[in-house]
Each structure stands twice: as C-alpha cells, then as structure tokens.
Amino acid sequence: MTRTKRGSKKYINIVENKEEEISDNEYQKRLEQWDINSLLEYLFKDERISKEKNTKKEKVFSFSKDENSKVYFSFFPIKNSGMDNSKKRMQIPEGYFGLGNRAVDFGKNIYFFIGIYPSSLTDPIFIILDNDGVSLNPTKSYSSLWISYDSLKNANKNGINYAINKINGNKYICFKKKYWTLIKNAIVQENFSSIIKNSGVNYISKNDEIIKDTLNVEIEIEKYDERKDAYILNNKQKLKKNPNYRDLILYESGYRCSLCNKDITFKTNNDIMYFEAHHLIPCNFNMQTKFEKKLDAPSNMYCLCPECHRKIHFIKDTEISPLLERLYKMRQKIYQKNYNLDFNKLITIYQNINRSQELEM
Asked: DSSP state, 58?
C-alpha cells in the first residue's frame, strides 16, 4: 500500500471568497504569508502591548488591565482537521497554547486565543476563542479547540459569525477586520470577562445579522473524573459545572421551552428572552458517582420556561411522570447509550430525591 505524501492531501478551503480544493502544502504557504507582528499592530494599535513569547510555536502578547492583572492574547494559525465532508472542522495545532504546554493558573488574568484563517491575502478571517479556564486543559487536549468550517463560511459571507462549541462550551467569534472595533469594544465593556456575556449576540451589534451556528458534530459526553470535575466547599464535595453549557442549551433551543413550547417570557437586560436550564438527571456529586459519563453535559440539559422548570421541582409526585417522560423520549437513545438509563430508572431517581432542593437557575 502506497502512503500518501505528507502535505499532499486536499481539503475544501475558502480562497479569495470561493471554495476551492487545495492541498495542505498550498494551505500552509498561504498561512506563512501572514506576519503575526503586523496583525498585532493592526488589532492592538491603540494599546501598549508587551511581547511575552515569540517562538516558532508560541506567540503571546499582553497588556495590563489594571495593576494586578493582565490580558493575554495568544496568536495561532488554523489547521485543517482531517475531515473532508460538510462536518469538517478546523483546529488549533498542537503546541499553540500560548503560555506553554501546561495547565494555566489564570488567577486574575484573562486569556484569549486569536486565530487567523487565510481566506484572503488581503482580508483574512480572524477567530477569537474564549478560554473560560474550565474547559481547556492544554496538558491533555488541543483537539477540543475546534472551529466549525461552516462558521468560517458564514463569517466570510456575512462578515461575522458567533458560535459555541458543543463539546466543551467554548464561545468564539469568526470575523473580518471591519468588525474588530465593534468586537473589541464589546469585550472591553464586559471587563474582558467573556467574548459575549450570556450569549448576548445582539449585544455586539443590533444592526447586523449574525448567523447563529454551532459545531455540526455529534455531541460527545466525556467520562467523569473526580480529580478534575469535583471540588470541596465547606467540607462537602461539589461538582464543577461549565457555565457556558446553559447558554448553549438556551441558544440551541431558540429560546423555546422544551415542555410547553412557549417562546415568550420576559426580556433580560441583554434583550434576550429569559429561560432556564434543567439537568434531567440531577447534577450533583452524589448522583454523579452512579454514572461513568459526566452529568454536566449539553445532552443532559433542557431549556425550560420558569413555570415548567418549577413544575419539574414542585409538582405532586403523582403528576411528574408525564413531564419526565416527554423530556426523556426526546433523547432516549442518548440516555440509554451513555448513561444506561431507561425511563423506569429515571422515575426511581426522582422518587428518591428532594426535588425542591435540586432547583437551579
């Protein structure tokens, strides 16, 4: 069997606003025509930037947010991931972790990834990926830092595209240069805490249509690891929960209740309809010890209106079964495959917990 020559494999890429099949080597040559320092000068021309690292793999810059903290920006190219169909992903290459190939103790510092996709030699697509310090462990994973190819296509067409990675909840924005001031201002106004707070897509721009998009891949549920997925608070063991998953579930549901189908409640300050997220299998430390896969996962969460959410937690025991059955059947195969959970076991779980104490907003 003849081995494929390294760099000869071809992928569909965006080349000067058109989709073309080009080889890895051709793609790499396009990337090498971009100078990171000139990009830095363009994006942060109004800030006093310090160069933290500038090696072959790591290009990290920072500026002080205040006396006690910094904002770090790690630059990286986007790499073809090896998939050749419509579900194709782009990927941050191994080694581009910015602060070293190690877990990072962020403290009061803020850390963003900024990527470049060479869709054009004059107007590339930039990607800002939010690192929440929860879903990224550089010592073990880089492949989870996926960028959807469809997100890049939408950004190339519309100028900007907001997305959430289904696997780890990371938020990211793909955008053209003309949107940079808008995005930067939104980040600064949120005190650099996130790309967009609470998925407030319209908070960035109320005048421009932003295509909603998430990674078009099957959701993976990670195995539970007590060493990294739990912590001790007041001498009690607690589960770590990814706050971005709530945003993802509401966002993907189109802000519509999974039980009553209601899509109108009331609007928050971010001009978004208010809904709540519910873990069908209760997400607490004691319950987690009974399952191999993590309970804090999008597959175990539903968008509910405030009234239906409280029904789940406060309705009479004799009346809860139809509500649980409706939610369970929506993802029956997922619950059976990943949690070995049939509906009778789910009912038993709810019969043996204090539902009112499990309520989460």
From this structure: -
- pLDDT, one tens digit per residue, over 146-193 is 788 888 888 888 888 877 776 666 778 888 888 787 777 666 655 555
Q: 110: closest CA among 128, 124, 127, 96?
A: 128
What are the tokens at 294?
A: 């993590």
pTM for this prediction: 0.63
d(CA 20, CA 14): 6
pLDDT in tens, 285-307: 999 999 999 999 888 999 999 99
Measured distance CA(313)–CA(359) in Å, rounded? 6
| Burial readout 201-228 (b: 16 or more C-beta within 10 A, e: otherwise) | bebbeeeeebbebbbeeeeebeebeeee
Cα(183)–Cα(160) distance, integer angstroms = 10
Alpha carbon distance 289, 278 (integer Å):
19
CA 268/CA 262 separation, integer angstroms: 16
- The C-alpha angle with vertex 183 and arms to 181 and 185, in degrees rounded to 5, equals 65
CA distance to 12, 21, 174, per residue, from 83 (Å)? 10, 13, 20
β-pairing, 110-117 vs 69-77, is parallel
Closest CA to 89 of 31, 149, 151: 149
